[in-house]
Amino acid sequence: MKRFDYARAADVAEALREGQGDGAAFIAGGTNLLDLMKLRVLTPDRLVDINRLALGGIERDGDGLRIGALVTNSDLAADETVRRDYPVLSRALLAGASGQLRNKATTGGNLLQRTRCYYFYDIAMPCNKRDPGSGCQARGGVTRLHAILGGSDKCIATHPSDMAVAMLALKAEVEVEGTDGARRRVPLDDFYVPPGDTPQVETVLGAGELITAVILPLPAGDRQIYAKVRDRASYAFALVSCAAVIGMDGDRIGHAALAFGGIAPRPWRNAEVDGLLTGQAPSDDLFRRAADLLLADAKGHGGNDFKIPLARRVLIDTLRKATRGDAA
Amino acid sequence: MNKHLKMDRPATERFLDETAQNVLGTPMDRPDGPAKAAGQATYAHEWQIEGLCHGVLVRATIPAGRVARIDADAVTGRDGVLRVISDPRMLRVPAQGGANEAPDQGPDEVAYLGQPIALVVAETFEAARDGALALPVEYDPADFTVDPDAVEPEVPKKKQASQGDLEAAMREAAHSVDVTYTTPGHNSAAMEPHAAIAVWNGDDLLLRGSYQMLKYNRNELADAVGIDPAHVRILSPYVGGGFGSKLGITHEAVAAALASKELGRPVSVTLSRQQVFETTMRRSETRQRFRLACDAEGRMTAVGHEVLVSQLPGQQFSEPVTQATPFAYAGPNRVIGHRIARVNRTCAGSVRAPGEAVGITAMENAMDELAEAAGIDPVQFRILNIPEKDPTSGKPFSSHTLERALREGAERFGWSERRAPGQRREGDWLIGMGMASAIRVNILAEAKARVTLEPDGRVLVETDMTDIGTGTYSILTQVASETLGVSTDRVRVRLGDTDLPPGPGSGGSWGAASSGSAVYLAARAVRDRIAEAMGADEVTLKDGHAIAGNRRVDLAGLFDGPVTAEGHVEPGKTMKETRQSSFGAYFCEVAVNAVTGETRVRRMHGTFAAGRILNAKTASSQCLGGMTFGIGMALTEELLHDPRDGHIVNRDLAEYHLPVNADVPQIDVVLLEERDDYASPIQAKGIGELGICGAAGAVTNAIYNACGVRVRDYPATLDKVLAVLPD
Amino acid sequence: MRTELTINGATHALEADARTTLLDALRDHLGLTGSKKGCDHGQCGACTVIVNGRRINACLTLACMHDGDEIVTIEGLGTAEAPSEMQRAFVAHDGYQCGYCTPGQICSATAMLDEVAQGWPSHVSDDLTGEMDLSDAEISERMSGNLCRCAAYPNIVDAIRATARKEAAE
Ligand SMILES: Cc1cc2nc3c(=O)[nH]c(=O)nc-3n(C[C@H](O)[C@H](O)[C@H](O)COP(=O)(O)OP(=O)(O)OC[C@H]3O[C@@H](n4cnc5c(N)ncnc54)[C@H](O)[C@@H]3O)c2cc1C
Ligand code: FES
Ligand code: FES
Questions:
Q1: Residue C62 shares a structural domain with residue C94
Q2: Shared domain check, C54 and C89
Q3: Contact C79 CB / ligand 2 (< 6 Å)
Q4: Is C43 found in the same domain as C6?
Q5: Is ipTM strictly over 0.90?
């Protein structure tokens, strides 16, 4: 861990002030930032501790819910409203990390956690995300964790979050406050940017900008499932995960929103898949077509080839269960 | 008045069955438990020492070559960094178990990516860690190979064997299988990373470390540093797990000792978890070809087991995969093959039960395949093929409990409920049962121990033996308590100090039987003194009193001063003249997810026999632990090597998947009553590793029974199952 | 930098580099070595301590972020002479072998029972909103953030189940 200055902000304005400049980083739960700093993957000069900011509440927001950026993953998963109305989110959170980590991990930090790519984590290895221009060592290397969709020549790392996948299916918006004090809301679907030639840039968040909240609209479907497939029964990142928010309109699918984890550089969503399902009567044939569409451009890199059939099976199974009504 | 015994004759005297205290074998709580549960047991890194500075090792970032230049000035003097040490005496690899001398030294010569090449010492850990990562190093790279399948392997003559005509037997057999299994590399991954604190007092080195076999470790350390072993003392009273990785002295010990000498200050060096993966022993991956055959009745006629393992150039050790093959099952025609691929990967060495852990596991899969080919129940098939005597050497078995374990285990588990493959489904889950035998060679090792009866009637037991979680504190307490008739709370055991009589060290499962025997012999000598003092030929000792005739005398006050004796046990003819092994049987029920291919172990049972059980609780815990290692081996654990430079990419506990609590069911363990007179004076055998020797095979055999998929490439991760599952 | 830490009810003045994690502060600066370091990256749970009533990984948080917090470590739960119920149960059920993961397991288990009492669901709870029933599967899932290489898991589950029952009976 490189030496840094530590500053504790008392409120948002102070945090934004302290957080200006290239080498500054906000620290919330610290479970991702410190992990990477110890390995010198990240080397901020200045840490701005935002834990004393008043962003720890969960409130009603019109029909929806406003989740402060500092709400811990544990509190969010256990929240009565979330458990009742947004079970897919509770499920996703509870499928992530461990009890101890969820007690520290925050909503904002979780959205911004970095990839678990082995080569990103090892400063002796080239990595375009960590060290732009150095190359991508994952290509041609061990790719079990890597993307089958949305990667680029420069980077095939996956985004590891479970929470963000559920939030994407719930059509969340991220509330951001800029250094000028102005707040804006960015749909989560627009929050993450594709790796392209600049995999070091992961979101639309500008330098020094702070996430203040995540807003969830009233869920458009009451059949919610989070399916997570991993290498051990608990305490492992997703190889493939699928969040489904389905609303039935009689015996047809009235609303479909699907999102996927473990397969792409960002929590993955394909609006065409949702469109294909909406208004249709559930059937295995329909689900297969949805899978075909989702995976049309999927590409394996050897060690992760299995994610293509796995994602397919998980998608079909999740849709069967959701439309049957064996949801969360 | 010491007692020495060489096991040249079977120990037919059942002394410990006739003593009066009745604590030996009971499930006594560990005496070290309260301190451990309260965080009061002090492990290597935890000694509070004035003036301590911290060292962090620097890793090589190329797989082979020479260190051309280390820019020490770039970090020294900044941020509290005191010194960058790159000393030719530092280790390139850890010492193999029992090496008794320094392993390869000279860190400038890089043999694998991740090898330590220097040590950065600073006032604080934070500064040392950062200095180590920031240190600029230049290399002259050299050629290397990292793929064991791509090199021409070495075929050591001594490690090949054959008898009869295997090929003919395969041709003529009613049933045969010719299958190849592979197992990946494993790391011991003890929860306590390797750690050492070195302090010099003049020419004397005191090292607080975390090691398994102190009598060897002292010599290894002395040899590496270049001093007389008489000047080295090592303390390891608590060891946070070893599983082979702490058998020999490791990088941190030598680095701490050298740095401490150079700086004139105490130095602490602890490996990071990543370094534990990169620089401590890995279990080699294996490729194992089995050619097994039987006649129409299921009697085996051929046993062929040919393996390929890998190792760094120049290292003696190679994974003894076929160690138990010569005697596991009957059959006149036999072949054993052993090839070694020399590659630039982290050094291969002992990981819990080297040999059988992978060898018996895969063997038990191949046996499952042959049983199926022959149409015989797998339990019956094994019973049918238990040899009368060692089929290779012709020696008699010292005892053989496999059949009992198989029958009793099958009964307890409900094996008769097993159905044909793919017949049981509960919702998304396909359910299956599998079994395997447990087989592990038994060894008695030379051991000494000292027992003192204090004038107040308390007993002190002393040896440099270690307790790495195995229960040494417990069983030595019980052996002394039983032999001397004092309650266990009046016995104190001191371990893990090279100043104490040398034990065998914790390795190869020999610890309990060997050290237990040494304590027993010492206590017998003290007992003789008590009898003498009572003027009797025979005494009964119970609850701190000696009883002879109608006299009952308190041991407190019987002597004016301490009465001390040393016990010394050595292996002898019984080990050479008999084939000795511990046995057991595993039964397992798994659920395989029909959608995802994920496997969950739902039930697991093990029945084991290992001679006299010294503490039912700690022995059973050893088996639980072994079986859990087996679950990991079956389902999750695998060292992933980069195909280009061979480095271990999943070098942490997030990506090297040890089983977590949710992966492990409430495993059931049964220990059989047994006495093995040929094994040790106390009729005990080793049990510490038995629980892993075959366990994974039961899991993968159950996967086959659940869904009809034979995974021959460990671990059985979901992708391998998925590939064969129907839509 | 200087931080006041409240640990097991006592105040400690820590003078340390801002980089010092709570875990290293406990182990290397304050002599509270009961909390263990197994990975230093949030991957094993050996460092589990209880901060403001909640279990966390002390290795992934900076000491300087914790002034004013109530920190409880294994040393604060009980001693070898006067152990807590959970500590006692771990010894009785042999919920450990080498003992290295044990303080973390015990801190984790102690705080985990509070989470259950508050009705927090887990990944294996069938019903997110119903009563939380502490089955073995629930215990195992909730304790999966604490690795044990000696693999005392079944005994750890026994120890926790016994403690929970005993507390419920009281
Ligand atoms: C062993 C392990 C296993 C894990 N398993 C899983 C898993 O299975 N599933 C899963 O989803 N996650 C998993 N995680 C990741 C965990 O969820 C994240 O580390 C956590 O959510 C990050 O939150 P934090 O508050 O600790 O973030 P921090 O570490 O504090 O911050 C992360 C990043 O976000 C920035 N940041 C934080 N808050 C804000 C804000 N309000 N505004 C702007 N920037 C901000 C920081 O500057 C930093 O760059 C695991 C982590 C570990 C260590
Ligand atoms: S040391 Fe903190 S989780 Fe491993
Ligand atoms: S008791 Fe050794 S790691 Fe758990």
A1: no
A2: no
A3: no
A4: yes
A5: yes
